[in-house]
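Hey team,

Filing this mostly as a record. A colleague (T.K.) asked me to run one chain through the structure pipeline before their review meeting, and I want the input and output archived in the tracker in case anyone asks later how it was produced. No errors, nothing strange. Just documentation.

Input sequence:
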Amino acid sequence: MGHSIFKFGALYLGNNIRHVPQVPTDDGDVPQHEGQTISIGAARGGEAITWVKPDGLNLLIADRVLLAVTSWEDLSRNGFALGKRVLIDKQNFLCRLLQVGENINAPNEWDNILDKTNEENSLWHWKDMFFWGQEVSACVASTRAVRGYYSARRWGHSSATGRDVGVGFRPALEPLPSDTPTPNIKLDDIDFQLTSLPGGNFCPILQPVDKDVFSAITVGSEVRMYTFLYNGHPIPFGEPVKDASKLTLTDRYFGDEYLIPWTISNGIAVASHLLF
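Output structure:
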């Protein structure tokens, strides 16, 4: 159980960046939607969204609600209910609502995320604020599932058209492949583009130029492969390094303890958590 923290991107209403709330509760300083276009883009001026990446999941979740007084329908009209492609700091993502369960007992992403991290309000800022999920509520077709407010795992439902200070937008990001990958490394005679998730320490993304390379691997599978060298020497997975620019990735085998764990989804391999 664990997670990594990244800071990048910002919430926009129209062409204007909105601040990241410091008191993300229904009586706090959460920005309110007033009908403007909602988008997620590059941060400017130093203020950035905090994202939590659970170990082993290719998913980054905002650590708090970023926008209140916005309905599920508002978010759907802006493309965020099921997912919208966004570009942030040169990385493509699918930005969407989390799957939170159509009823209180349905298996879902949010509970899986809490299982992999923890339920602390200091991490997830769920206290006194619900957030919208993707699902139509099994209770009433005109409502959508919400989570939070009273506890991390609290499930409820609210009118899809309702706008309230106590219900808001907590976006999630799935890393997506580059449209035009530039090969910068060859491993096992396969051309890859090696990059890193923005906004944190080194968390590599490995994208094959041939999009079918990972097609036979089940989405969400963890695969251990390849090794990082530091100044030409293999380093065990997770060992701290002073300068990530001195790292090189190799397909030479030095032992299982040196193999990097990657999670496969959307045709790319993302390191299961921060490496260095």
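Quick notes for T.K.: The chain has two domains: 3-175, 185-271. The longest helix spans residues 109-116.
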